[in-house]
Amino acid sequence: MKADSIAPSPAGWTPLFGAWLVAASSMLGALFLGEVMELPPCVLCWWQRIAMFPLVLILPAGMFPLDRSVIRYALPLTLAGWLVALFHVLLVAGVIPERIQPCSRGVSCKEIQIEWFGFLTIPTLSLIAFTLIAGLLLFAQHRMSR
Amino acid sequence: MNQKYIFAIAAALMVAIFATATLVHDSEKGNRRDEVAEQNRAILVREHSPTLGEAEARVHIVEFLDPACETCRDFYPYVKQLMAAAPGRIRVSVRYAPFHDGSEQIVKLLAAAKLQGKFWETLEALFAAQPNWASHHNPQPDMVWNFINGVGLDIEKLKVDMASPAIDAIVRQDLADARTLNVTKTPEFFVNGRPMPSFGYEQLKQLVAEELNSRY
Fold first, then answer.
1. Closest in B6, B14, B26 to A24, CB measured
2. Which end of chain A, N or C, is surrounded by fewer C-beta atoms within 10 Å?
3. Where would you find the membrane-spanning parts of this chain (chain B) (predicted)?
């Protein structure tokens, strides 16, 4: 890729870029809620941050230059975060009983701190973000394997 | 359009949005804090609050503090310096904000010491020994007795007072006022009713300087 070319993006670059956009906005969103609005993150939120924040650095490393392996590195983190987010959403919804929740100190994971449009809570946003990232990574995989 | 440029522009945009949102949020928060303090001037100080300095001093610092809080300990000599730099013009009142688990006992001890007229001596003794009884935000109320020996308190009376409903009411009152004034962290300062715009030594100094200039 020469700096002055106007060629279309190589196969798979755009979905990777999309995944990075989702990860970066999620990270900035989490930092805004936590550091600026000073809503304390609960334990489950911390686990999701651990999965989300590294993606913001790992994905660009595999986009410049384009490197297929980045999907193999990013997917496990994404799936781990997705599982925690799903657990969190189910816990808040009451599907999973409270007694098996891992939070004892600080903020309760069941506490709903924000709710936009009547359904968007922080865990819901997280689940949507991880789902999008996973989908985009799989799509990039599909585009690059042709 | 090169991918690197697309990426760089996207990253710059996101950072810019984040920074703008932060600035907007903080300025709104600052305005809200000013309003809350303005509306609740009457409860900044209570009858029971320990006060240091001349009664006619025109600059009044109200500090919400927790004796187990390390930053409060660091600020203490600094507040004293501010007072010394403007003799007779500044007075300080203390409000109890026992936010650490275990601080409440210590605050009751301070309130009981005030009944014996030894609030400030006790506070200083507690701050001096703080690393021994409250390291790492983990106050051990049972450990403080050795450290306040030198203050000359009547310990028997102190223990009786600490358990009294009157002292308990003082602590409840201060905690309730802290909630009303949106005080969630210690130390928190109000200078003639004005909260600090942001946290720091310099901000406090600035606020005190402004009030000194406008009152004298």
1. B14
2. C
3. 6-24
Q: How far is CA B125 from CA A72, B114, B162, in A?
A: 59, 14, 18
Place of tokens 């109000």: B190
Q: pLDDT of A71-104, one tens digit each?
A: 999 999 999 999 999 999 998 888 877 665 454 4
Handedness of CA A12, A18, A23, A28 (dihedral sign): positive
Q: Which of A21, A28, A60 minimises the CB distance to B18?
A: A28
* Interface residues from chain B to A (CB-CB < 8 Å): 1-4, 6-7, 10-11, 14-15, 17-18, 21-22, 25-26
Q: Which residue has tokens 């020469």?
A: A2
Long-range contact pairs involving A3-7 (C-beta distance under 8 Å, separation at least 24): A3/B2, A3/B4, A4/B2, A5/B2, A6/B1, A6/B2
Which residue, among A25, A28, A31, A35, would best test binding to B if mutated, counting the most B CBs under 10 Å from its CB?
A28
Count the Cβ atoms, other than its own, within 10 Å of residue B11.
15
> What global pTM score does this model have?
0.69
The owner of tokens 């006992």 is B105
Place of tokens 């781990």: A80
Q: What pLDDT, on the 0 to 100 scale, is given for residue A106?
A: 57
Q: How many residues does chain A have?
A: 146
Asked whether the beta carbons of B129 and B208 are under 8 A apart, the reply is: no
Burial class (CB within 10 angstroms; exposed 0-12, middle 13-18, buried 19+) of A134: middle
Output A15 or A110, whichever has higher pLDDT. Answer: A15
Residue A8 has pLDDT above 80, yes or no: no
Q: Averaged over B197-209, what is the pLDDT? A: 91
Residue B153 structure tokens: 């308190």
Eight-class DSSP state of B187: S
Q: How much helix, strand and coil, in percent to the nearest 5, is found in chain A?
A: 65, 0, 30
Residues A72/A73/A77/A83 CA torsion (nearest 10 deg): 10
How does the average pLDDT of chain B come out, rounded? 92
